Structures are given as structure tokens and as C-alpha cells.
């Protein structure tokens, strides 16, 4: 159960979530992408696969978790968020219990569930960050992106949550820029937050990303040999190596944390 998040919008978080999931899938893992961006859900748009049902239908009790799981390119399974609705901020106890029970049914069916959250630290994003097993924070070398990524991690830490964060630096001009950016964030996190921040890797700035968005086709499908695709592939390989060393994940802990946070 992995949350992918960012301190601000426009850093390529959703594109990373989607293509990271596809990279994991190509390596033989079953993956579910869960669009948890309440206000600006767009995973189905990036996939070019309109979703008949989404999270809204689940929370209203109209559909089960299996009804709202859609299939996109290359068989990738995803749950659309549904843009522009605010029902998640007013969940009743019954809705929370139903949501938890439905998520619990996924246990054992997927190797990884990736929650693509909204940018910034809304209450809903915080809930997904703190309930998941870990969080991947995506930033770019831009100072505002770096500052906001740090602010997000600081807020989570200040509120008393011990969330294992990992870092991805997107849109780098070269590996050196990625390394310098990552080192700066890591040093500040270590000094002021007493937080270890492992770096998963860097993704080159690549014009093929915007081309893939316009085609509504995942980058790794539309341009499998592009620089950004190769960067994401390296990140997926490193992530899986570290996951094998740390052990498997389970839905139970997520459910317990989620119900405690959402009650």
C-alpha cells in the first residue's frame, strides 16, 4: 500500500504513478492504481480509458470494489477518483466501515496498490499518506517544488506520524542535477526532521511525456525507449530490490490506520 504524493501540483506525480505502476507490472507484479485525488482525478484521462464507475459509486454504496476496478492499456487495473465531488470530506461512520471492508477484499489479489493523491496536504491526502505503508514524494529541481515537498514531509512529521518517505526527482536536466536536488532535500530532512529520506532515482526532462499525455496513452507504452521511460524503469528496479529486502506488505495495517484516522 503505497501513496504517491507531492508538495505542489504540476510536478508530474500522476504521470509517475501511472508509469511506475506499469513498470512494476512489466516485471511480473499485479498492480492496482487508485486515483485518490478528490478534486482533480485524472488517471482515467491519462490512460485514455473513460471509467464507467469510480470512487464516488463505491462510497455511496452503489457499487462494490470489484465493480469500480477498470482495465486500461496493457491490462493495468485502476480505480478512477471522480473529479469535482466532495463527499469524501463528509464520510459517515457507516461509509468508513463500508470503504474499509471493500478495500479489505483486495488483500491477496494485488502485489502493490498505489494511491495517487492530490498535491499538497489536504485532510484527505494526509489520511492516505499516513494510512499507507510508505509514501513516495515526487519533486522537481525547481525551488518552489523542493520547498513544498519539504513542507509536506515536515507537516506529516510535526503531526506525529512516522511515515517512511522515499524521494523521486522528476524533470532533471541530467543525473547531476537530480543528485544535487536529492542531496539538498535529504540533508535538510536529516538535520531538521531527523528523517532518513532514501532516493529512488531521477527522471529526465523529456518532451515525450507531454506527447503521451496528448495521445492519452501511458508514456511507457507510447514511447518505451524514451529517456523518461528508462528513468522510471530504473526506479522500478531499485524499488523492487529494496522491497524484497524489507519484506511484503499487507492490507490489514492500512485498514487499521485508515479507520483510526477517518473516525
Overview of this structure, please?
The structure is a single chain. The protein has 263 residues and is of the alpha/beta class. The chain has one domain: P-loop containing nucleotide triphosphate hydrolases (Rossmann fold), CATH 3.40.50. It has 12 helices and 8 strands. It has helices at residues 13-26, 43-47, 55-59, 65-68, 93-104, 123-131, 143-158, 175-193, 207-215, 219-222, 227-246, 251-262, and strands spanning 2-5, 31-36, 69-71, 77-79, 112-117, 134-139, 165-172, 199-204. Helix 7 (143-158) links the parallel strand 6 (134-139) and strand 7 (165-172). It is globular, with a radius of gyration of 17 Å. The two termini are 20 Å apart. The model has no long low-confidence stretch (mean pLDDT 89).
Task: Using brief descriptors, characterize the structure shown.
alpha/beta, Rossmann fold, eight-stranded mixed sheet, 12 helices, 49% helix
Helix fraction by DSSP (H/I, runs of at least 4): 40-55%
Q: How many E-type strands?
A: 8
The major beta sheet can be summarized as: 8 strands, mixed
Within CATH, the superfamily carries the name: P-loop containing nucleotide triphosphate hydrolases
In CATH terms, what is the architecture?
Answer: 3-Layer(aba) Sandwich
User: Helices and strands, in N-to-C order?
Assistant: EHEHHHEEHEHEHEHEHHHH
CATH third-tier fold name? Rossmann fold
Low-confidence stretches: none
Amino acid at each position: 500500500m503505497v501513496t504517491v504524493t507531492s508538495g505542489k501540483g504540476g510536478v508530474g506525480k500522476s504521470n509517475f504513478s501511472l508509469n511506475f505502476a506499469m513498470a512494476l507490472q512489466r516485471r511480473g507484479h499485479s498492480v492496482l492504481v487508485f486515483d485518490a485525488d478528490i478534486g482533480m482525478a485524472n488517471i482515467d484521462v491519462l490512460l485514455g480509458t473513460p471509467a464507467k464507475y469510480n470512487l464516488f459509486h463505491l462510497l455511496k454504496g452503489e457499487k462494490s470494489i470489484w465493480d469500480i476496478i477498470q482495465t486500461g492499456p496493457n491490462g493495468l487495473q485502476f480505480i478512477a477518483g471522480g473529479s469535482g465531488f466532495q463527499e469524501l470530506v463528509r464520510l459517515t461512520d457507516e461509509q468508513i466501515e463500508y470503504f474499509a471492508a471493500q478495500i479489505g477484499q483486495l488483500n491477496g489479489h494485488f502485489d502493490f496498490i498505489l494511491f495517487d493523491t492530490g498535491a499538497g496536504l489536504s485532510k484527505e491526502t494526509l489520511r492516505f499518506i499516513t494510512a499507507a505503508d510508505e509514501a513516495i514524494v515526487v519533486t522537481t529541481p525547481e525551488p518552489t517544488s523542493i520547498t513544498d515537498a519539504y513542507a509536506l514531509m515536515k507537516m506529516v512529521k510535526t503531526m506525529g506520524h512516522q511515515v517512511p518517505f522515499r524521494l523521486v526527482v522528476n524533470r532533471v536536466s541530467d543525473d547531476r542535477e537530480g543528485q544535487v536536488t536529492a542531496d539538498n532535500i535529504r540533508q535538510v530532512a536529516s538535520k531538521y526532521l531527523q528523517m532518513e529520506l532514501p532516493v529512488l532515482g531521477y527522471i529526465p526532462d523529456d518532451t515525450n511525456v507531454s506527447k503521451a499525455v496528448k495521445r492519452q496513452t501511458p508514456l511507457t507504452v507510447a514511447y518505451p525507449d524514451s529517456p523518461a521511460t528508462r528513468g522510471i524503469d530504473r526506479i522500478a528496479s531499485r524499488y523492487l530490490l529494496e522491497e524484497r529486502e524489507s519484506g511484503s506488505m499487507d492490507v490489514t495495517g492500512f485498514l487499521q490506520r485508515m479507520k483510526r484516522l477517518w473516525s
